[in-house]
């Protein structure tokens, strides 16, 4: 601004009275095609995707990032929440009423959701921007309702789901202490497993259970390599993998599959020079011997004063349900003393029907307005339509559902003298899964003086 024509730039002279600083590249505009008219832009509405319906596009909704993260003042937030007329609460009022009627919300819960929406209106930087799910989680420090508020915002089309999944949280916990290069390579692998790959080499997304098993199998091995000084998976050799698998006894098969998946993905993305697992034979699956449980322990849990515990233990102990099947059971799956589970029609045992009636009476007394269609509900899922966690109600019990299921199948295979066809039809097992129980018939560790141990 102060340079004279024909003279060089005098920086010292220009800075004598102070110098105005600017952020670099803030006014750069790439030359290209002329902008579209509003009529041409209407089918996509790119600029309006983060705004409330009925309101004009917000300048803050175009992706402007926050310069400073400052915690809001609780007093100011509480004062804003007391305002009655707000855009967000008015827009979501009908949806809140519909959710309350469909899920059987109490008046207190409906008021809590309305108050939470007012809190979010005060926390948002823009009055018309969509709300991130991670921002809704901040309502806990203001005694707000988180889960029901997220349901309402999702139904209104105002939610940006950015919460990490269970696999992402599990992956972050297992890889937080690894070297940066290893961690970046593992993140590429996780992304391919989760989302698949549309470029060569192509790959379909994997089941979350498979991904978790891969991480569980390779986690101790990669940490051992990191402690040995390796900084990248490109430094891993075939001998390193062989030595690691030889030391792995419990999860050798799972670890081998996980390492093959990891190095195949890294080689396909050209992050390593060669795949050290190429041509390696899969490790044989490890097999354990199912053992019978103490009948006194099962009988104690069957007579539990908690009706949901007694019902869950009875369904597994008599009909060998898995915890996944148990949490997904619906009220309509049981009719006239029969349980319909997929293609199987299971007549319920008399002790199961007794405990089922007790649980239904308790459920109707505790949550009379609940519209949750699932058989098992708790305080968290009663006002919603979600199933309970697979750990419910097993947390705090001495029995594990998988061990209890194995005990039931083991008793059946011994009672029928090794009838594989019967246990396959009765419990929905494959022939390979049933063979594991068949191998226990006349096993030397399960016999006493030549007589097989039977549960009384």
Low-confidence stretches: 40-62, 448-456
Averaged pLDDT, please? 80
Percent strand equals under 5%
The run of helices and strands is HHHHHEHHEHHHHHHHHEEEHHHHEE
Q: Describe the global form.
A: flat
Helix and strand content put the structural class at mainly alpha
Q: Summarize the biggest pleated sheet.
A: 3 strands, antiparallel
Radius of gyration: 30 Å
End-to-end CA span: 98 Å
* Number of alpha- plus pi-helical segments: 19
Helix content: 40-55%
Strand order of the largest sheet: 3-4-5
Number of strands: 7
Notes on the protein architecture:
Strand 4 (338-341) and strand 5 form a beta hairpin. It is built from 19 helices and seven strands. The protein is flat. The longest helix is centred in the middle third of the chain and has 20 residues, at 208-227. The chain has a three-stranded antiparallel sheet, with no helix packed on it. Helices cover 46% and strands 4% of the residues. With 456 residues, it is mainly alpha-helical.
Key features of this structure:
single chain; 456 residues; mainly alpha; three-stranded antiparallel sheet; two-stranded parallel ribbon; flat
Write the layout of secondary structure elements.
Blueprint: H1 11-14, H2 38-41, H3 74-81, H4 87-103, H5 107-123, E1 131-132, H6 133-136, H7 147-156, E2 159-160, H8 166-175, H9 180-195, H10 208-227, H11 238-247, H12 252-268, H13 295-302, H14 307-319, H15 323-328, E3 334-335, E4 338-341, E5 344-347, H16 350-366, H17 401-415, H18 420-427, H19 431-438, E6 447-448, E7 451-452
Parallel strand pairs: 1-2
Antiparallel strand pairs: 3-4, 4-5, 6-7
Helix pairs in contact: 3-5, 4-5, 4-7, 8-10, 9-12, 10-12, 14-16, 14-17, 18-19
């Amino acid at each position: 601004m102060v340079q004279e024509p024909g003279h060089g730039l005098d920086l010292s002279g220009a800075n004598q009275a102070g110098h105005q600083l600017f952020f670099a590249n803030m006014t750069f505009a790439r030359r290209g095609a002329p902008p579209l008219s509003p009529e041409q832009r209407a089918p996509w509405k790119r600029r309006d995707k983060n705004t409330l319906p009925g309101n004009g596009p917000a300048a803050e909704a175009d992706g402007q990032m926050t310069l400073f993260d400052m915690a809001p003042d609780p007093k100011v937030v509480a004062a804003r929440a007391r305002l009655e007329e707000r855009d967000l609460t008015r827009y979501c009022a009908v949806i809140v009423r519909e959710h309350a009627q469909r899920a059987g919300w109490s008046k207190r819960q409906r008021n809590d959701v309305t108050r939470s929406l007012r809190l979010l209106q005060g926390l948002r930087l823009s009055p018309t921007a969509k709300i991130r799910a991670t921002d809704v989680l901040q309502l806990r420090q203001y005694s707000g309702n988180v889960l029901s508020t997220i349901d309402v915002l999702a139904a209104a089309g105002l939610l940006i789901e950015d919460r990490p999944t269970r696999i992402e949280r599990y992956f972050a916990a297992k890889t937080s202490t690894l070297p940066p290069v290893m961690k970046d390579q593992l993140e590429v692998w996780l992304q391919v497993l989760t989302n698949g790959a549309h470029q060569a080499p192509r790959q379909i997304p994997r089941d979350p259970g498979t991904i978790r098993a891969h991480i569980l199998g390779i986690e101790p091995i990669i940490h051992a390599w990191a402690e040995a000084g390796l900084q990248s998976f490109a430094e891993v050799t075939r001998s390193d993998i062989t030595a690691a698998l030889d030391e792995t006894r419990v999860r050798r098969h799972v670890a081998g599959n996980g390492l093959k998946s990891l190095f195949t993905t890294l080689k396909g993305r050209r992050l390593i020079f060669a795949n050290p697992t190429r041509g390696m034979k899969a490790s044989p699956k490890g097999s354990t011997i199912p053992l019978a449980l103490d009948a006194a322990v099962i009988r104690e849990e069957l007579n539990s004063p908690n009706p949901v515990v007694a019902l869950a233990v009875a369904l597994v102990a008599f009909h060998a349900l898995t915890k996944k099947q148990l949490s997904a059971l619906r009220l309509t799956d049981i009719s006239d003393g029969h349980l319909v589970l997929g293609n199987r029609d299971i007549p319920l045992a008399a002790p199961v029907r007794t405990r089922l009636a007790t649980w239904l009476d308790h459920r109707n007394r505790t949550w009379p307005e609940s519209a949750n269609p699932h058989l098992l509900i708790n305080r968290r899922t009663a006002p919603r339509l979600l199933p309970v966690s697979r750990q419910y109600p097993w947390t705090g019990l001495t029995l594990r559902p998988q061990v209890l299921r194995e005990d039931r199948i083991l008793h059946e295979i011994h009672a029928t003298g090794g009838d594989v066809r019967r246990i396959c039809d009765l419990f929905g097992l494959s022939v390979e899964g049933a063979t594991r129980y068949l191998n226990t018939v006349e096993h030397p560790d399960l016999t006493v003086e030549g007589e097989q141990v039977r549960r009384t």
